[in-house]
Amino acid sequence: DAGITQSPRHKVTETGTPVTLRCHQTENHRYMYWYRQDPGHGLRLIHYSYGVKDTDKGEVSDGYSVSRSKTEDFLLTLESATSSQTSVYFCAIRRDRGNEQYFGPGTRLTVT
Amino acid sequence: GDSVTQMEGPVTLSEEAFLTINCTYTATGYPSLFWYVQYPGEGLQLLLKATKADDKGSNKGFEATYRKETTSFHLEKGSVQVSDSAVYFCALNTGNQFYFGTGTSLTVIP
Fold first, then answer.
1. Phi, psi angle pair for A84, to nearest 5°
2. Who has the most CB within 10 Å: A21, A33, B47, B54?
């Protein structure tokens, strides 16, 4: 499982509040990714990181920001949560050798 | 842009039936191709991969062959089991990004 954990695993929050999701890895992989999963859309990339302080946007980055101050942690922040951000969020790493991804267990976020 | 299209589900099969889930892709360059499986309440797990044309990925009785001429990577299994019930995702990698299909739900009935 590449030692990936996500916290929290479940969260309910109100519209307009900021929310931060955490992804933690234990194997020092350079690349980390945040996706959201919604019915009928598969997985869509929000942001990814290719090193400490190095990040880039994905296809659905509006309303989200990320930070990576150390190799093992990649944080996703919803600056002001909206109901359209209700989703399941997955973090993934890409192994430095080979190019497959490994996923965390997911965070189910509900914005009321 | 790069993208993956996979067959719509849901798919329901009887145990020991033959499985095919179609996947086609659009990509510039030479992508790597993957199949992932997701069980209820869990993250995606890598099932198999292929990194160049004519490669065959295989794992747990599942197979897929990278066909550049037809831009396809169809997933097959000769005899499905109830435990194979899950959602299957086709994906491709080019550069730093990965692109996923919308997923195909498979239910296998005894």
1. -70, -10
2. A33
Residue of A101, A102, A107, A108 to mutate, interface with B, max B Cβ within 10 Å: A101
Subunit contact A100:B49, Cβ cutoff 8 A: yes
Confidence tier at A6 by pLDDT (50, 70, 90):
very high
Q: CA separation (Å) from A34 to A56, A73, B9, B94?
A: 11, 12, 25, 17
Give the one of A43, A104, A105 whose C-beta lies nearest to B100's C-beta.
A43
Confidence class for position B81, pLDDT limits 50, 70, 90: very high
Q: Hey, are the CB atoms on B43 and A103 less than 8 Å from each other?
A: yes
Least Cα distance to B70 among B19, B33, B17, B18 occurs for B33
